[in-house]
Specification:
Blueprint (H helix, E strand, L loop, with lengths): L1 H14 L20 H7 L32 H8 L13 H21 L13 E5 L7 H6 L3 E5 L3 H11 L9 E4 L3 H11 L5 E7 L8 H11 E12 L3 H14 L16 H9 L3 E12 L4 E5 L5 E8 L26
Parallel strand pairs: 1-2, 1-4, 2-3, 4-5
Antiparallel strand pairs: 5-8, 6-7, 6-8
Helix pairs in contact: 1-9, 2-7, 7-8
């Protein structure tokens, strides 16, 4: 108890000393000229099973996948999440902070999509939109997006996590026609989506607390671009690569307060907003907004902040021939406006 109290005091002191937030510049991005099919096949996965596990219930996206030789998946990261696969829906357990994060990331996704797609339906603001949730785990973010009316496909390479997600979704009849899951990697799915055509592409891709666990970020960015429709949105939440993020995100959160299991994060895999923007731009994705996020372990709540020194949320749009959203009207869901959405 004493160590947890001291840890919280340390956390509070460092939070007050965070640096000023990063704001993404709005500039044109160069698109990748490489062959998408060849690229994804070269970077596809080493999995214990070579195909996606098909659902035993209704599947809006019935897509089979193929194995290849390389992957975004880090085998060491897989081991971590295999052991936690049954604990996703324990709101007081290892994933408590992710449950609380929905208070920020769900409105962030919803509001920015409503800015891009003006047509919406009362009570189901995301109806008619297809969303891919990459690294969905047990479905903590997949389900609320489905309740907002979107048709959501959650994918994850950990089959036990997908099993947990499917089982939990069965308890809510509202999700049967809107949410589905597949155990596969992003690059496996990308190869099949490209083979089927644009009708299988997505209006949005979500990767929340995922990129800091991947083995190949360039493959991730490339494949996100390939599965998105022209003008589609990419949403990422992740951890910045700073000294303070190491102290608070690894030392305090994992070793002192044990907010997340020890060994969950590798600081070397963290990425700054500037580096992430550069990577996305090289794959035809223009960053629209970046907003800092802050977790308070005392209240167990997340809040928006001007600092991106620890956690941040990012919204990017795939460039193409279609008109892009008016940047002057872009919703950031930041401290000033994250509660101003017309729909809940």
């Amino acid at each position: 108890m004493f160590s947890r109290t001291c840890g919280r005091l340390v956390l509070g002191l460092f939070v007050r000393k965070q640096s000023a937030g990063y704001r993404a510049p709005h500039k044109a991005a160069a698109r990748s000229g490489s062959s998408s099919t060849a690229f994804c096949k070269q970077r596809a996965p080493l999995l214990q099973r070579s195909t996606c596990v098909e659902m035993k219930q209704h599947v809006p996206y019935q897509i089979s996948t193929k194995s290849a030789s390389r992957s975004t998946v880090d085998p060491d990261e897989l081991k971590k999440f295999w052991s936690l696969a049954s604990k996703w829906w324990d709101e007081r357990g290892e994933f408590a902070a992710l449950h609380a994060m929905n208070d920020l990331r769900v409105p962030f996704i919803r509001d920015n999509l409503l800015n891009v797609h003006r047509a919406h339906y009362h009570g189901k603001p995301l109806a008619g939109l297809k969303i891919l949730d990459v690294g969905c785990g047990g479905g903590l973010l997949t389900e609320p997006l489905g309740r907002l009316g979107a048709t959501v496909l959650g994918i994850d390479p950990v089959e036990d996590s997908i099993g947990t997600a499917r089982l939990h979704a069965l308890y809510d009849p509202e999700l049967r026609e809107s949410v589905s899951y597949q155990a596969c990697t992003l690059e496996e799915l990308t190869a099949e989506v490209e083979g089927v055509g644009e009708e299988q592409q997505f209006d949005a891709v979500v990767a929340s607390e995922v990129v800091e666990h991947l083995a190949d970020l360039e493959t991730f960015a490339f494949c996100c671009s390939r599965v998105l429709k022209q003008g589609g949105s990419l949403f990422i939440t992740t951890i910045n690569k700073t000294n303070v993020s190491y102290l608070l995100g690894v030392v305090v959160a994992e070793q002192l307060l044990r907010i997340v299991p020890s060994g969950t994060h590798d600081w070397e895999k963290f990425i700054s907003p500037v580096e992430l923007e550069r990577l996305l731009e090289s794959n035809g994705l223009l960053v629209q907004s970046v907003q800092g996020m802050l977790y308070n372990p005392v209240s167990q709540n997340w809040s928006w902040t001007n600092s991106t020194a620890i956690n941040y949320a990012l919204h990017a749009v795939k460039l193409g021939d279609d008109p892009q959203p008016d940047q002057s009207e872009e919703t950031t869901s930041g401290p000033e406006n994250h509660n101003t959405a017309k729909h809940s």
